[in-house]
Amino acid sequence: MTKGMPPRARVDQIKLSAESWDAEQILAWAFESFGGRVAISSAFGAEGMVLIDMASRVQKDFRIFTMDTGFFFPETYDLMQVIEGRYSVSIERVQSLLSVEEQGRVHGAELWKRDPDLCCNLRKVEPLRRKLAELSAWITGIRRDQTEARAGAGKIEWDDKFGLVKLNPIADWTEKRVWRYIHDHAVPYNSLHDQGYPSIGCTHCTRAVSAGEDARTGRWPGLAKTECGLHIIEQPAQGERLSAQAADA
Fold first, then answer.
1. Is 119 a catalytic residue?
2. Domain map of the chain by residue range?
3. CB-based contacts of 187: which residues, under 8 Å, 6+ apart?
4. Fewer CB atoms inside 10 Å of the end CB: C or N, the chain?
């Protein structure tokens, strides 16, 4: 990779060849390229646990952060303690500018029922935006077969929404492969997975799924919503594209 090349240009140069790299190679490239300015974003689902374990095998010191909404399941908080002990890391907890109580006073009780998009924006998207402003790249555990919005995810791509490099090392993995890795390497995972929760988010917006149901039906049940907004691709307006191109020139 050419040193001194603007990040977007570096991504354009390497993204196609990176599709043939395995997840460990993606992580190694990320750590070598960005050092302390790249971090794993995780809510500690199965995919996130794979990345954390894999990262620990690639590099001793690495960063992990989570958007702690204040509505995590107790099992998720328990797992976070296990992660910090096993991998000798300190999870960076990113929180909304509004406490849970303040959100209730400002927007009314149970906002997640009346306007789940606003709730996700306040507790996840805006906190993430602030965190990513500190970084040059972020690493996620999304897979292409999870939702339509994730189907086109590249292993290495430029994130127009947040303006930095985004890495999805296991984008081409299947759920079966994720769990095979977890069992082969004795990776800790959220105990809710054994209770019918394939995807785990906030307590108010997550339920167990029945046999035969799609995994994402357990998120925001009863609503036409499958994403919190973190991984929804937003194309920049023409003026923003021109400005970005000028900055990379």
1. no
2. 7-248
3. 49, 50, 53, 181
4. C
187-207 confidence digits (pLDDT tens): 999 999 999 998 899 998 898
Using 50, 70 and 90 to split pLDDT, how confident is the model at 149?
A: confident
Q: Other C-beta atoms within 10 Å of 211: how many? A: 5
DSSP 206: B
Q: What CATH architecture applies to the domain 7-248?
A: 3-Layer(aba) Sandwich (3.40)
Residue 83 in contact with residue 89, Cβ under 8 Å? yes
- The active-site residue, picked from 120, 202, 205, 228, is 228
pLDDT at 65: 98
- Asked if residue 155 lies in contact with residue 167, where contact means CB atoms within 8 angstroms, the answer is yes
Burial class (CB in 10 A: 0-12, 13-18, 19+), 101: exposed
Question: What 3-state class would DSSP assign to 60?
Answer: coil
- Among the listed residues 29, 74, 55, the one whose alpha carbon sits nearest the alpha carbon of residue 65: 55
